[in-house]
Design goal:
Radius of gyration: 20 Å
Distance between the termini: 39 Å
CATH class of the largest domain: Alpha Beta
Number of domains: 2
Shape: globular
Number of helices: 11
Structural class: alpha/beta
CATH topology of the largest domain: Dihydrodipicolinate Reductase, domain 2
């Protein structure tokens, strides 16, 4: 299987490792920044370099491409690849909105090609272990879930594409897609019914909350995304989902978590990120919680395995193995469409100040 990269950004390293682990050959890299493409090719021993997606697709006998570019270009490049009968692995978010995501899903169906998105948290060992417990039936009906991603100093630069809504799609809510997807996946991916939300930009221009990752600061650049978002979403079947995210919140340290409450058990899966971006100090945990018939608390750590790469490599490897017919896909385009419908409704509710039907 021959695969090429459309984009040479920071996530490329995980895609390359995962594709090779899955059994694919990474044969080319394309980026509009020639220096970035050349460096990626040199660092990871990729034989061919391009600055034009059209030229690369025409010149290389490809089976698949990986889309690792700013969010506004996910849909155009994925659609181009699918039109050329290529399988597509695309970073999150799937696209800027549900409409674009649906167009990608329909194109993949027409082309009879695999379209998969980088919802890598599904590939974390603790997430896989928790889903296995849920599917066993021991939780009973899951009534509610909470997804949270809070950063203390997490604004990814100023004036770059991360803070430009027309290119990124939004601020920390777009990061929280990982947590929202994980919660919905645990719950069996029910469709959304209504969303009520608020977004805030109180701290988004405060330079002291600048994070250790992202883009350089561009003087007078656009910064029109939220710094925080809170939402309540009702789901088909009677369940609900609460969302909380921020790039700039005065808390102890950055944390991402998903919590679930079932009729018989509850659970949470948490990552406390490394202090000041140092992954060596990160902490992962996953626990099950219940009560005995006599009212005794039962707390059970689910797994002590840890994936420092947060499932990114495993997820990319799963894409290759899925195309080769060796594994089932970790995610589907149809799930991505439902996810983006919820995100669209959250943003609309925040704009209008009213509940929005999904």
């Amino acid at each position: 299987m021959r695969i090429a990269l459309l984009g040479a950004g920071g996530m490329a390293r995980y895609h390359i490792e995962g594709f090779r682990e899955g059994g694919a050959d990474v044969v080319a890299v394309c980026d509009v920044n020639p220096d970035a493409a050349e460096k990626c090719a040199s660092d990871f021993s990729i034989p061919a370099v391009y600055s034009s997606a059209d030229e690369m697709i025409a010149a290389e006998k490809l089976d698949a491409v990986s889309v690792i570019v700013p969010n506004a270009f996910h849909a155009p490049l994925a659609l181009k690849a699918l039109k050329n009968s290529l399988h597509v692995y695309c970073e999150k978010p799937p696209a800027l909105n549900a409409r674009e995501t649906m167009a990608m899903a329909k194109a993949a169906e027409r082309a009879k090609k695999r379209l998969m998105f980088g919802f890598c948290n599904r590939a974390r060992p603790e997430a896989a272990a928790l889903r296995k417990e849920i599917r066993s039936g021991r939780f009973g009906k899951i009534d509610s879930a909470q997804a949270m991603w809070i950063r203390r100093t997490g604004i990814p630069g100023y004036g770059g594409w991360f803070t430009t809504k027309a290119v990124s799609g939004g601020g920390p809510l777009i990061d929280l897609l990982h947590g929202v997807d994980l919660a919905l996946w645990f719950m069996g991916y029910p469709k959304g019914e209504y969303a009520l939300a608020r977004t805030f930009d109180t701290l988004v221009r405060d330079k002291k909350f600048r994070g250790p990752w992202g883009m350089p600061t561009f003087k007078d650049g656009t910064c029109d995304v939220e710094s925080a978002a809170h939402a309540f979403v009702t789901l088909e079947g009677g369940a609900c989902l609460s969302l909380r995210c921020s790039w700039a919140e005065m808390v102890e340290r950055e944390m991402m978590s998903v919590s679930l409450q079932g009729a018989k058990e509850g659970a949470d899966i948490t990552r406390k990120f490394g202090v000041d971006g140092d992954d060596a100090t990160a902490e992962d945990s996953c626990g099950l919680y219940s009560m005995s018939s006599s009212g005794k608390r039962i707390d059970k750590p689910l797994t002590d395995k840890r994936d420092e790469k947060m499932g990114r490599v495993r997820c990319a490897a799963n894409f290759v193995r899925t195309v080769l017919g060796k594994e089932e896909p970790l995610s589907t385009p149809e799930e991505a469409v439902e996810l983006m419908k919820i995100i669209d409704a959250v943003y609309k509710s925040a704009r209008t100040g009213a509940p929005v039907k999904i």
